[in-house]
Design goal:
Number of helices: 15
Strand content: 25-35%
Shape: globular
Number of domains: 4
Keywords: Membrane, Transmembrane, Transmembrane helix
Low-confidence stretches: 1-46
InterPro entries: DUF5722, GH
Helix content: 10-25%
CATH superfamily of the largest domain: Glycosidases
CATH architecture of the largest domain: Alpha-Beta Barrel
Largest sheet: 8 strands, parallel, barrel
Distance between the termini: 42 Å
Strand order of the largest sheet: 25-26-30-31-32-33-34-35
Protein name: DUF5722 domain-containing protein
Length: about 725
C-alpha cells in the first residue's frame, strides 16, 4: 500500500488540509478519496512513554468512531481493513520500544500487521498471528526493537492492519510506545527456565495421575481437633505417611516436612493427628493439606500412593440444602448498582451471583478505616466500608431467600489499593496481559493470606442467623478456560494450569465446608467447549476431564459447573444462527442452540459425584445482546432470550440460570447485553428493554403470551421445534 504522507507536506495554522498528488492518484485508482486533518499535537510524551492517537480521517475499509474515554470503536467493512496513527511530533526515545494497547474483541483477529512509514526496503511489516478473542479489556504488547534501528524520527508514523475478516468489531484504547516494564522483563528473563521446570512437572503429573498404585489412603476425616486417616497397603516395609502443603507439588518433593511411619494391621492403617501445626512462622490448618504414602529407600522417599484431600469435614453449622424454587437468577448483582434492587422482586429472582474482589478490601495494616479479624492466631484487616457494602448486598438477597454464589476474583498487584496484599496474592507467573490473576498458592505466606480471607468470608456469610447475609456457593475465579484473560497464571499447559486451579478449588471447598456442609465450589467456563479462538486459552472439555481425573485419584469432592453459553458471537442475539455448534460431545462451542450437549455431558455416570449424584450446573453468566436500541435490535435480543429459556426450561441437568448483565455497561466493549439500558442513556436512562419482560414472564402464566410473538422471527411455528431430542454423539454431526 502507498503511504498517505509524503515529504512534501504543506503546513499552515491550526487544522490544515494536506495532500500529495501521487497519493491522490493512487487512492483514486483504489476508488476512494480521502481528505484528512493534521492536528497540531499528534503524539506527546508522558511518563516516559509516547502516547499514540489514531488518525480519525484516514483509514481503509473500516467504520471508526471515538467513544468517551478515548476508546476507538472499529468495525471492519472489507478484507483489507487498516488505520493509521498520527505522525511523531518529535524523535522517539529508543527506550520506548514496545507498542502497547488494550483491546476488546470477542471474536479475535487472524493477525495484526504493523507497517512502518515512510517505507523502505529495510523496514519489513511486523506480523502478529492469532490475536486471541477477549470479552474484557486485555493489554497487548509488541516488541518493535528491530524496527527502531531505522524508524522513529519526527514525522514517522505507523499503519495497523486488522486482519482479513469483514464485519469484525474491535475496540482499542491506551495506545502508546513505551519501555518494557520491569514485570515484562522479569517474565522474559525467566521464561526459558520456567518452561523447562514445567515440562518436568507436566511429565511427572501425567505419570502420577495414570499410575495404579498398590497403596491407598481411602478416607480423611477432619474434626475440630484432629485429622483421622485410613488406608491400606500392600507391603508394610518402609512406608510412611507424608503431608503435602498447598504450596508444594507432591510429584516434585524430595523431602517432606512431616513423616509418620505406617504400622499397618492386616494391611490397613488408621492414624490420628492433631489438626493444627506451626510451620513457616504460621499456625497452619491441616484441613487444607493433602496426604500421601511414600516409601523410604536408603535416604530418599518415593511416592507410593495417590495423595488424598479431606473427604469429610465436621462443620460448624448444619442446616439443610435448599434448592431454589425456579431456575431464574441474576448475574453480577450488587445493591449498589444503579438499577433498582426491587427488580429482584419484579423479575421473580431466586438465585444470584455476586462478584467479590478479595484483594480490593483486604488490608495488610490496621487503620481507622479497617476492621481486624483473626485467623489461626494472627490478625488481618479488611476495609470497613467495602465489607459494609457486601453486607448490604447479601442482606438484600437473604431476606428474599435468594441463593447466592460468590465469584472470587483476585486482582493483579498493580490494580490493588494495598500493594503489599496485591503482591502476596498475585500468582508469581501472572502475565500483565491478564485482567485478573490466579491466587498465589506457591508460598506458605500466599496460602496463609488466601486462606485467611476465604475463612473470613465463609465465616461471616454462613451464620444461621444471617446477621450479615448469606453466601451459599463459591464460583472459583472467572472463565478459567480463558484463564489468560480472567485467571492468569502465565503461559501454562492445560494440565499444569488445572493443577494450580484444582488447589484453589480444594482450598475454597474445604474452608466453605468448615461452616456449611452444603456449600459447593464451581469451575467457571466460557461457551468454548472443544475449540478456542485464542491460542492462550484451553478447551473446556480438557479442563473438565483433568478435574475428573484429579477427583478420581485424590478423592472426589462435590464440585459443580458454572457455564456461560452465550451465542457464538456475543454481539449477535440470533443464537439459532450459530454455526460452530453440533449435538456432540466434541462440539466446538456450547451455546443456547446446543445447550442439550451440556445437559447430556453432566448426566454421564463418569461425571457424577462419587458415581452417584449429578453435579450442579448453573448457567451463571449469559444473555443476549442488542447491538443498538433500535426496535428491531431490541426485538431480536428478546427473541434470543425467549429461544434460550424455552430450551433450558425442559433440561433437568441445568439447575439454574443467572442473567448477565442486569444493566447495560459502558465497560463491556460496546455490548448492550443488559435487561435494562445504560444508566446514562440519553433517551431512557436505565429503562427496561423487551428482554426484561421476556425474563420476567419465564415460568409464569404470562410466558406464552409474551414469548409467542417471537416465533415468527425465529422461524418456527411451535416452541417444540427448537428442542433437540436426538442422541448426543461422540463426534460432530449435522445440525
Amino acid at each position: 500500500m502507498e503511504q498517505p504522507y509524503s515529504a512534501g507536506w504543506f503546513f499552515g495554522i491550526g487544522n490544515i488540509i494536506l495532500y500529495d498528488i501521487n497519493y491522490l492518484q493512487n487512492i483514486i485508482m483504489h476508488k476512494y478519496f480521502l481528505f484528512f486533518l493534521l492536528y497540531p499535537i499528534v503524539f506527546f510524551a508522558q511518563d516516559s512513554k509516547t502516547t499514540l492517537r489514531v488518525n480519525t480521517k484516514v483509514y481503509n475499509q473500516i467504520a471508526l468512531s471515538v467513544l468517551e474515554g478515548d476508546i476507538y470503536d472499529i468495525k471492519t467493512l472489507g478484507k483489507d481493513p487498516y488505520l493509521f496513527f498520527n505522525p511523531l511530533e518529535e524523535d522517539l526515545d529508543k527506550k520506548n520500544n514496545h507498542l502497547v494497547f488494550e483491546y476488546f474483541c470477542p471474536t479475535g483477529l487472524d493477525f495484526l500487521e504493523i507497517h512502518f512509514y515512510p517505507q523502505n526496503n529495510d523496514l519489513k511489516p511486523k506480523i502478529i498471528r492469532d490475536i486471541g478473542s477477549t470479552e474484557g479489556w486485555v493489554t497487548f504488547s509488541i516488541d518493535l526493537s528491530e524496527a527502531l534501528k531505522t524508524w522513529g524520527k519526527k514525522g514517522d508514523y505507523l499503519r495497523l492492519d486488522l486482519g482479513p475478516a469483514p464485519a469484525l468489531s474491535i475496540q482499542l484504547k491506551h495506545l502508546a510506545l513505551r519501555q518494557q516494564t520491569k514485570r515484562e522483563l522479569e517474565i522474559a528473563k525467566n521464561k526459558a527456565l520456567k518452561k523447562k521446570q514445567e515440562v518436568i512437572l507436566e511429565r511427572n503429573l501425567v505419570t502420577y495421575l495414570d499410575k495404579d498404585f498398590p497403596n491407598q489412603i481411602s478416607n480423611v476425616l477432619v474434626t475440630d481437633e484432629i485429622v483421622r486417616l485410613e488406608g491400606k497397603v500392600s507391603d508394610d516395609k518402609n512406608l510412611h505417611l507424608a503431608e503435602v502443603g498447598v504450596y508444594e507439588d507432591a510429584t516434585e518433593l524430595k523431602d517432606f516436612s512431616f513423616l509418620e511411619v505406617i504400622e499397618p494391621k492386616d494391611k490397613t492403617f488408621n492414624i490420628t493427628l492433631d489438626r493444627f501445626k506451626t510451620q513457616h512462622g504460621y499456625k497452619q490448618d491441616r484441613l487444607l493439606s493433602k496426604w500421601i504414602i511414600v516409601e523410604k529407600k536408603e535416604d530418599k522417599y518415593k511416592v507410593a500412593s495417590h495423595a488424598r484431600y479431606a473427604d469429610s469435614i465436621v462443620p460448624k453449622y448444619n442446616y439443610p440444602f435448599k434448592k431454589p424454587s425456579t431456575k431464574k437468577g441474576l448475574g453480577g448483582y450488587s445493591i449498589n448498582r444503579e438499577a433498582p434492587y426491587t427488580d429482584l422482586d419484579s423479575l421473580g429472582i431466586t438465585s444470584a451471583t455476586v462478584n467479590i474482589w478479595i484483594s480490593k478490601f483486604f488490608r495488610s495494616n490496621p487503620s481507622p478505616e479497617d476492621m481486624p479479624f483473626e485467623y489461626m492466631g494472627d490478625t488481618y484487616y479488611v476495609n470497613k466500608k467495602q465489607i459494609k457494602n457486601l453486607d448490604n448486598t447479601f442482606l438484600s438477597t437473604s431476606e428474599r431467600n435468594i441463593e447466592v454464589s460468590a465469584i472470587l476474583l483476585v486482582d493483579k498487584a498493580s490494580k490493588t489499593p494495598d500493594k503489599k496484599i496485591g503482591h502476596i496474592l498475585e500468582h508469581p507467573d501472572c502475565d500483565p496481559s491478564g485482567i485478573y490473576s490466579m491466587p498465589n498458592l506457591t508460598t506458605p505466606k500466599g496460602v496463609q493470606y488466601y486462606s485467611a480471607i476465604l475463612d473470613f468470608l465463609a465465616n461471616r456469610y454462613s451464620r444461621p442467623d444471617k446477621k450479615f447475609g448469606r453466601i451459599h456457593h463459591w464460583i472459583i475465579h472467572n472463565e478459567v478456560d480463558a484463564g489468560w484473560v480472567w485467571t492468569n497464571a502465565g503461559e501454562k499447559t492445560a494440565l499444569v494450569f488445572m493443577d494450580i486451579y484444582h488447589k484453589s478449588m480444594r482450598m475454597s471447598h474445604n474452608i466453605a465446608r468448615k461452616y456449611n456442609p452444603n456449600s459447593k465450589v464451581f469451575i467457571t467456563l466460557t461457551h468454548f467447549w472443544d475449540w478456542t479462538s485464542n491460542p492462550h486459552f484451553y478447551h473446556s472439555t480438557e479442563l473438565l476431564e483433568f478435574l475428573l481425573k484429579f477427583s478420581k485419584t485424590e478423592g472426589d469432592f462435590e464440585w459443580a459447573i458454572a457455564y456461560h453459553p452465550y451465542p457464538e458471537s456475543l454481539r449477535e442475539p440470533k443464537t439459532w444462527l450459530d454455526k460452530k455448534v453440533s449435538f456432540s460431545f466434541d462440539s466446538q462451542l456450547i451455546t443456547f442452540k446446543n445447550i442439550e450437549v451440556l445437559d447430556a455431558w453432566v448426566k454421564q455416570p463418569k461425571v457424577f459425584f462419587k458415581g452417584k449424584t449429578k453435579r450442579l450446573v448453573y448457567l451463571s453468566e449469559n444473555g443476549t445482546n442488542s447491538p443498538t436500541y433500535s426496535e428491531q435490535d431490541l426485538k431480536e435480543q428478546a427473541a434470543g432470550m425467549a429461544y434460550a429459556m424455552k430450551k433450558i426450561k425442559y433440561l433437568d441437568g441445568i439447575d439454574g440460570f443467572q442473567y448477565h448483565n442486569w444493566q447495560d455497561n459502558r465497560n463491556e466493549g460496546g455490548l448492550r447485553i443488559g435487561l435494562r439500558r445504560f444508566p446514562d442513556d440519553k433517551d431512557n436512562p436505565g429503562g427496561i428493554k423487551p428482554v426484561w419482560k421476556v425474563y420476567q414472564a419465564f415460568g409464569t402464566e404470562m410466558e406464552d403470551k409474551v414469548y409467542d410473538q417471537y416465533k415468527t422471527m425465529i422461524g418456527i411455528n411451535s416452541w417444540d421445534e427448537i428442542r433437540y431430542k436426538g442422541p448426543i454423539n461422540e463426534t460432530r454431526n449435522q445440525n
